[in-house]
């Protein structure tokens, strides 16, 4: 009959009195289990953990009752509806404070002669347009923008539409994806501001005259 290992192994607790490893402490509860002289502690859970656990249980009951029968806890659908309503209010407020620019002959005419708009348009022009039309609009690859001759029409709306749609067969890109409508309108204001400036080295006229 095999020997019980617990009876054959030395009880080290007697030689290691006071060692926490062997369970020889007086302030701990000891379970009846022992193996190779090592005793198993039976310590209670910390009080804060127990209270947290029971608090979670109580909260889950209140939450379930509130969301199922008494409606004092919002459902997912309620939260979603409230969030969408708040988002719609924020969007309406933003649109009221930042109205969307719509290009019309009247709105473009308001840009013409506005020094602030012209300055903003010039900044955009120097960044995107000067490489083809020259820093003063004199024309390089693209046509001269300072004379009264226009290939695709010279009204404010014509210029705006060319900026928006581009002229792909001539290498003129469409700027509708890169520039906001208001930025394109400011470009129109700048181009109108350089009409008749006759910069040095300007390209010969192209297109038809527009008074």
TrEMBL record:
PROSITE patterns: CYTC. GO terms for molecular function: electron transfer activity; heme binding; metal ion binding. Residues 116-195 form the Cytochrome c domain. Residues 200-211 have a biased composition (Basic and acidic residues). Pfam families: Cytochrome_CBB3, FixP_N. Residues 1-22, 192-211 are annotated as: Disordered. This is Cytochrome c domain-containing protein. It comes from Longibacter salinarum.
């Amino acid at each position: 009959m095999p020997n019980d290992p617990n009876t054959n192994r030395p009880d080290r607790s007697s030689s290691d009195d006071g060692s926490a490893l062997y369970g020889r402490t007086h302030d701990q509860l000891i379970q009846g289990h022992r193996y190779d002289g090592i005793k198993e502690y039976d310590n209670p859970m910390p009080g804060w953990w127990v209270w947290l656990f029971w608090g979670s249980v109580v909260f889950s009951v209140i939450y379930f009752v509130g969301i199922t029968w008494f409606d004092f806890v919002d459902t997912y659908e309620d939260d979603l509806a409230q969030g969408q309503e708040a988002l719609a209010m924020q969007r309406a407020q933003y649109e009221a404070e930042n109205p969307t620019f719509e290009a019309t002959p009247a709105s473009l005419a308001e840009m013409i002669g506005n020094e602030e708009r012209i300055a903003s348009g010039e900044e955009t022009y120097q960044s995107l347009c000067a490489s083809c039309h020259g820093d003063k609009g004199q024309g390089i690859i693209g046509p001269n923008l300072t004379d009264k001759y226009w290939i695709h029409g010279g009204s404010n709306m014509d210029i705006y539409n060319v900026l928006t749609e581009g002229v792909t067969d001539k290498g003129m890109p469409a700027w509708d994806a890169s520039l906001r409508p208001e930025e394109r309108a400011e470009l129109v204001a700048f181009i109108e501001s350089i009409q008749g400036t006759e910069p040095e080295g300007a390209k010969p006229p192209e297109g038809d005259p527009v008074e």
